Amino acid sequence: MVIREYPDCAAGDDATVTLTLNDETVTFFVGQVDSRPTQDDSGVWTVNLVDAQHLLTKTKTYKTSWRNVSFTQACTKLLDLAGIPSDLRGTIFDAGSDFVLGPKYAITFKGEYVVLDLLNALLDWAGGSIYVSPDGKINIIAAKIYPNDDEAQYTYCYGADYANAGELGYTSATRTIGGFEGATRSYKAAGPRRPDRQIPDATFTIADMVGGKDEEKEYQFIQTEDCAKAVARREIVRLNRVSTEVQLDAPLNANLRPGDTVLFRDPLLQFPDTQGAIVLTVSTNGDSGMALLLSVGPKPPEGSLTLVPPPKPNFSFTFDRQP
Questions:
Q1: Which residues of 182-192 are buried (b: 16+ CB within 10 A; e: fewer)?
Q2: Boundaries of domain holding 130
Q3: Which of 29, 71, 176, 281 is the most buried (most CB within 10 A)?
Q4: What is the C-alpha radius of gyration for the chain, rounded to an integer number of angstroms?
Q5: In DSSP terms, which residues pair with 314 in a beta bridge?
Q6: pLDDT digits over 68-113, tens only?
Q7: 242 vs 207, which has greater pLDDT?
Q8: Which of 60, 104, 107 lies closest to 84 in space, CA to CA?
Q9: Has residue 192 got a pLDDT over 60?
Q10: Domain shared by 272 and 172, yes or no
Q11: In this model, does residue 193 exceed pLDDT 90?
């Protein structure tokens, strides 16, 4: 954060950033001062601020096991491990019965871990993400696959009419259009080999697609085929939205956060009609601008999704005995 006056603060002090536009003030950030303020040759002071997420980057000793632990309970345990106080915790979404930790055997932790690494592995498996609300609270939210147009408060469009409430313009827009070679034809989600020597997995394909990539990934927390199916079904849809991504440079909008739905229209980028879009990332660009990455369009990939059942596992073992 860059300011013009001397910041009378020290590392660890509470910090709140507000933005005022047209006599309307909103809270943009709540957190702490990260380090001692510094001044450059022009006399401008820089203050680095951090929110509660910085506590997740600490290395902690963790010795425990999870058996039949819900996703919500697992997230809570990791927030406890990081030392996130209760007043900085928001909501944790319910990932459902397919995403239980340790339904077949216990998941064991013994050693030192960066809490954020554990949490990211959990979120990658369950389809979630971390969202820090303007009040500084950490929320664990479900990653959206499709936008919800009813939630949209803003429309970003080519040739915006500012007389229309919520309609905003942008300074540049870029879309990379890929062909079938960039699409995902099939996706396989698998877990590690269980103590009973079974490997749960599931593969979904887009039946009518010609060409495309076959992708697979192992998730350490998959122990059942129902869980593998839920992950594979989600990921093949998510991966096939990549070609709908649009990068925007626009004036700063302090009210937007990743996961929000906006509306988008630009005939030059082959979106002649207004469509819903998910905000993937938001980053500031200078003193009064921002870069937005949007995933535009409500439609799933072309073709029908087909589940390919996994083969029946058949393991054989041999051993030699020394004379």
A1: ebbbbbbbbbe
A2: 53-142
A3: 71
A4: 24
A5: none
A6: 999 999 999 999 999 999 999 999 999 999 999 999 999 999 999 9
A7: 207
A8: 60
A9: yes
A10: yes
A11: yes
Tokens of 148: 């919800």
Instruction: Give 124's contacts (C-beta < 8 A, 6+ positions apart).
Output: 219
Decide if 228 contacts 222 (C-beta within 8 A). yes
Q: What is the pLDDT of residue 312?
A: 40
163 with 225, same domain: the answer is yes
Is residue 247 a contact partner of residue 229, using CB atoms and an 8 Å limit? no
Structure tokens at 84: 């996130």
The CA distance from 139 to 131, in Å, is: 5
Q: Which residues fall within 8 angstroms of residue 299, CB to CB, at 6 or more apart?
A: none
Q: Which amino acid is residue 231, in one-letter code?
A: V
Q: What is the pLDDT of residues 273-289, one digit of tens each?
A: 898 998 888 887 766 78
Which of 142, 159, 175 finishes a domain?
Answer: 142
The bridge status of strand 201-206 relative to strand 184-190 is antiparallel
> Among all chains, which residue has been given the structure tokens 């309307």?
24
Same domain, 128 and 266: no
Mean pLDDT to the nearest integer, 217-234: 94
Integer Cα distance of 188 and 121 in angstroms: 17
Residue appearing with tokens 């072309």: 302
Q: Which residue reads 């939210």 in tokens? A: 141
Last residue of a domain, one of 32, 50, 68: 50
274 and 183 in a single domain? The answer is: yes
Task: State which amino acid sits at residue 147.
Answer: P
Instruction: Specify the residue for token string 């937007």.
Output: 256
Same-domain check for residues 88 and 163:
no
pLDDT of the residue at 321 = 34
Residues 158 and 122 in one domain: no
Based on the fold, state whether residues 224 and 281 are members of the same structural domain: yes
Q: Record the pTM.
A: 0.76
Number of domains forming the structure of the chain: 3
What per-residue confidence (pLDDT) applies to 180?
55
Angle 297-283-26 from CA coordinates, rounded to 5°: 95
Instruction: Please tell me whether residues 150 and 272 are part of one structural domain.
Output: yes
